Amino acid sequence: MDLPPGYEASTGGRFVCKLNKSLYGLKQSPRAWFGRFSQAMRRFGYKQSNSDHTLFLKRCEGKLTALIIYVDDMIITGDNSEEVERLKDLLASEFEMKDLGSLKYFLGIEVARGSSGIFLCQRKYVLDLLTETGMLGCRPADTPIEQNHKLAEYPNQTLTEKARYQRLVGRLIYLSHTRPDIAYAVSVVSQFMHNPSETHMEAVIRILRYLKSAPGKGLMFSKHSHLDISGYTDADWAGCVTDRKSTSETKGCGQVKC
What we know:
alpha+beta; TATA-Binding Protein; 2 domains; four-stranded antiparallel beta sheet; 7 helices; RNA-directed DNA polymerase; Putative RNA-directed DNA polymerase
């Protein structure tokens, strides 16, 4: 942060300016913006979630309204249409807002709404990833990881480019939010982020080849009148070839009201 042009010359460089409010681009600005937004949401009667501070909830007469925000992009949803419209008006009176209509795309996730429910996928995200890695024309794989794989540490193997490996695995981790079919394979390759070898990179490439076979797969939330959540868990027995630890996995699914 520097003095405005002309001030330094007139003061001899012996003075500083005190800001009356945050300016765009300062390192403190995101925190100041979110603090002001949170105060406004609490004033509107919304409760900030303890597990995710970007989520705000309001229950009224058995109905739920929710808002989640990422920087200055937000989703407003719920089964109380009157409260949703009221919240839009309150936010517009407090901040400069732009209503983009029904949700279709958010943070790389595509949203399709139909009579049977809501479908989430990351098709564009997958195609962009394949294009970036030069694998858009690759031969598809039937599975994301080899059956009965024996991936482990390979100290005698040639190391691969660490930064590229970490970047690809990081993108696959985000993709697995809507692609549970690659979750196990991604969890395996993510164990070698600190010291990846060529064999580990080949496993990452196989996941990309599998994604080529069906880039538009995703999650379908069927239309129902309740918010019940079911969970499933399973584990193998001493499946890790390096330390014989077991691998467990838990899945949750819910039926949402559209």
